[in-house]
Amino acid sequence: MNFLSNESGFTLIEMSIALVITSIIALIAGVIVVSATRDLNRGNQQIRLQQDLSLAGELLTNAIRTSDCDSTWIYSDQTASEEVNSGSCLKVSSLSMFYKDGDDLVVQNDSGVTQILLISCVDTLNFYRETAADSLKCIKFRIALRQNEYTIAADSKVYFRN
Q1: Which helix (H) or strand (E) holds 14?
Q2: CA–CA distance, 43 with 37 (Å, rounded to integer)
Q3: How far is CA 158 from CA 21, 59, 60, 135, in A?
Q4: In 3D, which of 116, 117, 127, 122 has the Cα closest to residue 73?
Q5: What is the separation of C-alpha 10 from the centre of its chain, rounded to a whole number of angstroms?
Q6: How many CB atoms are located within 10 Å of the residue 52 CB?
Q7: What pLDDT does residue 137 have?
Q8: Three-state SS across 101-153?
Q9: What is the pLDDT of residue 66?
C-alpha cells in the first residue's frame, strides 16, 4: 500500500482558506450594497423635500399674487380670530386659508373643506405683512420642511399684483 499517492484535488486547508477569502469578499460587497442603498434613500428623501418645498412655495405665491392686499389677512392660527402682522395662518380673499396643522400644511376653502397639501413634514410656516420702501405692499413667508435628519427652508417675498 502506498499512502503517499499522488492524488489531485484540494486539501482541507486550501478549502478553508478559499472559504475565508470568499466570505471576506462577500462581506465587503454586502457593506457596499447597504451603504449605496442608504445613500440612495437619503438622496431620494432630499429630492422629495425639495419638490414639496417648491410646490408649497408656488401655491402660496400664486395665491398671494392673485389676491388683493385689502382682502388678505394674517392670523396667529387657523381659528382666524384676530388679525396680526405676523402669524402662521394666511387667509387669501374669502377663497382659501393656508395654515400649519401639526406637521401638515393645510388649505381650507371658503366652504370649510380642508385639504392637506403636505403631510408630516412642515416644521415652520410663518407669514409677515410688509410695506416695502417703494410703498408696494407684500407678504413675506417662511416655510421649513423636515424629514428625519433633513431640513430645508425657503423665505419668499411676494408682492400683490394690484
Answers
A1: helix 12-65
A2: 10
A3: 63, 12, 9, 14
A4: 127
A5: 57
A6: 20
A7: 82
A8: ECCEEEEEECCCCEEEEECCCEEEEEEEEEECCCCCEEEEEEEEEEECCEEEE
A9: 85
Q: Dig out the grid coordinates for 32 from the structure.
A: 457596499
Cell of 138: 407684500
Task: Give pLDDT tens digits for 103-126.
Answer: 999 999 888 899 999 999 999 999
The x, y and z cell numbers of residue 31, run together, are 457593506
User: Is 4 buried (19+), middle (13-18) or exposed (0-12) by CB count in 10 A?
Assistant: exposed
Q: What are phi and psi of 110, to 5 degrees?
A: -65, -20
What torsion do the CA atoms of 22, 23, 24, 29 make, to the nearest 10 degrees? 90
Q: Considering Cα of 99, then 104, then 107, then 108, what sign does the dihedral take?
A: negative
According to DSSP, the residues that pair with 75 across neighbouring strands are 83, 89
Question: Is 90 in a helix, a strand, or coil?
Answer: strand
